[in-house]
Structure formats: structure tokens, C-alpha cells
């Protein structure tokens, strides 16, 4: 079966050679067509009488041996046909053998042969050309998720009755990141990023307003108005470093594989404020109060980021190792976020 695969490779090479249109100098040659089986065919092109006489004394096995193929000892792969051009070399036919299993690549076609059982199994796949994995590239991405935080006891403040309890929907985490990716090995990358993140913490209890207190942030209950929304927002300039493993690229599956990434990040605060939306008890339109509370927030944030992806879908999570508010605050809250990457 493997001999027939090699013959098929030779046939594919001839089809590619005759199908290409180029400005190469063509020579009139004699061709020999060897037919076998029901539809098998080998086409040999000879351009002089000496080669023709030598060809008459060769058999198919000898022709294959004459190819003088070099096998990659690490991967078990051998390149049958390689086209050299101004832009470098391009593999046309490649064969990999692993015991009873053989894999042949011809352009965008893959042929799998399994001879491990009593019956030989052959599988043909088309449109499976591997996408190039450049050694270095840059790209942009967008983080969109939700925020929350843990208190000093490790409890997530969500859905509770405390003034600091966070409502998930509306506590958006938005990040714009410029990334530079360096390939270390096949499927293993080191990514560096620089971006801006916006934190929003929307409170479950909308009658409480975050305001500037005496040396610390405070929450006061507004009984004098009807509260509609209460939140804290902050923005950070953030740098990150991620180590990524792409099992899809490792297994030549492109974007269809499984991916994981992890690494640290550090950010510098650009701004911070609280927002309170309310309406007077006697009616009227909605009003907004803003408090500049940036001085009570930590100027720096640092933590760990993790990513996981399958196919074209990627998710992220971040956890701040330091607290949201500056050291000495009575509120020891460590932010956490999770969402999707676009």
C-alpha cells in the first residue's frame, strides 16, 4: 500500500508540473506512460537516449530507491517533492510513516493509511492546508467581561445586602490591548501586551452612594431620594506577559485545537470616580452625582491573567493580588473579572 502511495505522489507531481503556467524554458521530451490496475498510471519524462536505456533496466522499487529520500529522524517525515523558488522552498509532497500508519500530504490534500488491522483503512481529506505560523506577529484584541471582588475572608460580594455587594450585569470590564507574539517553538508563544482597562462595579443596593470620607471612601444611604444606579469606575494602563500553548498548532489543526495561556500583569491608574443616579421623592427627572474618589483607589494594580480557548472562541479571567482601595482602607477587596476575548 505504501508503494502505491508513493506512486500516487509521483502522479500528483506530474499533474502539478503540467498544470503550472510559468515562464520557465520548456524542452521537448519523450514521455513513457505506465498503466497498472484499473486506473493507476505513472508518467515518466526522458530527454535523452542514455536515460531511456538506463530506465529500461530499472523496476518500480528501484525507481523509488533512486529518489534518495531523507527521513527526518525526529518526526519520521520525508519530503518527496520540494519546489525551490525566489521566495524560498515549498513542499509539494510530504510523507510521514509511523509504524503501520502512513500520512501523505499533496498540496491541500491529506491521505491517511492505517495497516494496523486486518483490513487496510484509507482516509482522504481535502482543504487541510496548514496556515503559516509566523515567528513574530502583532495584533489587537478586545476584552469584554464582568467584574466582582473577594473580601478579606475570601467571599465574593454579589447578591448580598451589604453596601459593597456587586451586581454582575452592568459591572462591565472592558479592555483594549495591543499584543506582540513571539513564537518560541511550534505551538508555544510568548505574548507581550499593552492596553487600557476600564473597571465598573455596579452595586446591588442602589440606594447607597460611594462618597469621599475622612481619609477613606464611605457608603452612605440616600433616604432623601429614589436611587436608580450606584457604581464605581476606574481605568488603568496595563502591561501583561502571557505564555501560550496552542495544541491545535502542535497537532497541525490550526484554530480548531485547544489553547491555554497564563501570565502576570501590572497596571497604573488613570482615573476613578463614583456615579449615583437618582430621582427626587416628589418626582421630576433623573439626576446624576459624580464623586472623584481616585485618591482612595490604589494607584497600581497587579495580578495574574489566564486564558482558555477552543476553536475561535477565547475566554479570559484576571485576579488582582492587591486590593482595589489603597493600603489602610477598611475595605479589603480584591477584584476579579472574567469574560470573552474578541
Can you walk through the features of this model?
Residues 1-19 form the signal peptide. By secondary structure, this protein is mainly beta. Helices cover 11% and strands 54% of the residues. The chain is built from four helices and 18 strands. The protein has an eight-stranded antiparallel β-barrel with strand order 8-9-10-13-14-16-17-18. Strands 3-4-5-6-7 form a five-stranded antiparallel β-sheet, with helices on one face. A two-stranded antiparallel sheet has the order 1-2. A hairpin with a 3-residue loop joins strand 1 and strand 2 (40-46).
- Give the tally of structural domains: 2
What can be said about the biggest beta sheet?
8 strands, antiparallel, barrel
- Give the distance, in angstroms, between the N- and C-terminal Cα atoms: 46 Å
Let me know the number of strands.
Answer: 18
Radius of gyration: 33 Å
- Kindly report the average pLDDT value: 81
Q: Which structural class do you get from the secondary structure elements? A: mainly beta
Instruction: Enumerate the strands of the largest sheet in spatial order, edge to edge or round the barrel.
Output: 8-9-10-13-14-16-17-18
Beta-strand content estimate: over 45%
**Number of helical stretches of at least 4 residues:** 4
Helix percentage range: 10-25%
What is the N-to-C order of secondary-structure elements (H for helix, E for strand)?
Answer: HEEHHEEEEEEEEEEEHEEEEE
Protein name: Outer membrane protein with beta-barrel domain
Signal peptide: 1-19
Keywords: Signal
Amino acid at each position: 500500500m505504501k508503494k502505491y502511495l508513493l506512486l500516487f505522489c509521483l502522479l500528483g507531481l506530474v499533474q502539478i508540473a503540467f498544470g503550472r503556467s510559468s515562464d520557465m524554458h520548456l524542452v521537448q521530451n519523450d514521455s513513457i506512460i505506465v498503466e497498472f490496475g484499473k486506473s493507476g498510471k505513472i508518467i515518466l519524462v526522458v530527454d535523452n537516449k542514455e536515460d531511456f536505456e538506463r530506465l529500461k533496466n530499472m523496476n518500480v522499487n528501484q525507481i523509488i530507491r533512486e529518489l534518495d529520500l531523507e527521513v527526518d529522524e525526529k518526526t519520521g517525515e520525508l519530503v518527496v517533492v520540494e519546489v525551490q523558488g525566489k521566495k524560498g522552498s515549498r513542499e509539494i509532497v510530504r510523507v510521514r510513516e509511523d509504524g503501520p500508519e502512513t500520512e501523505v500530504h499533496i498540496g491541500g490534500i491529506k491521505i491517511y493509511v492505517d495497516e494496523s488491522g486486518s483490513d487496510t483503512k484509507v482516509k482522504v481529506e481535502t482543504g487541510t492546508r496548514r496556515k503559516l505560523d509566523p515567528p513574530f506577529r502583532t495584533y489587537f484584541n478586545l476584552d469584554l467581561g464582568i467584574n466582582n471582588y473577594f473580601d478579606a475572608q475570601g467571599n465574593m460580594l454579589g447578591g448580598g445586602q451589604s453596601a459593597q455587594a456587586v451586581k454582575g450585569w452592568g459591572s462591565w470590564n472592558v479592555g483594549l490591548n495591543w499584543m506582540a507574539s513571539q513564537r518560541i517553538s511550534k505551538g508555544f508563544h510568548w505574548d507581550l501586551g499593552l492596553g487600557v482597562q476600564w473597571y465598573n462595579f455596579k452595586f446591588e443596593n442602589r440606594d447607597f452612594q460611594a462618597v469621599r470620607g475622612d481619609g477613606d471612601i464611605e457608603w452612605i444611604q440616600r433616604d432623601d431620594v429614589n436611587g436608580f444606579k450606584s457604581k464605581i469606575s476606574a481605568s488603568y494602563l496595563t502591561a501583561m506577559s502571557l505564555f501560550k500553548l496552542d495544541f491545535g498548532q502542535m497537532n497541525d489543526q490550526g484554530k480548531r485545537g485547544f489553547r491555554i495561556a497564563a501570565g502576570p500583569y501590572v497596571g497604573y491608574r488613570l482615573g476613578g470616580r463614583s456615579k449615583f443616579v437618582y430621582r427626587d421623592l416628589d418626582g421630576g427627572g433623573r439626576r446624576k452625582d459624580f464623586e472623584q474618589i481616585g485618591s482612595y483607589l490604589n494607584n497600581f494594580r497587579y495580578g495574574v491573567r489566564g486564558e482558555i480557548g477552543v476553536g475561535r472562541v477565547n475566554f479570559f479571567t484576571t485576579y488582582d493580588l492587591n486590593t482595589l482601595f489603597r493600603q489602610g482602607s477598611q475595605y479589603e477587596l480584591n477584584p476579579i473579572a472574567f469574560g470573552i476575548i474578541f
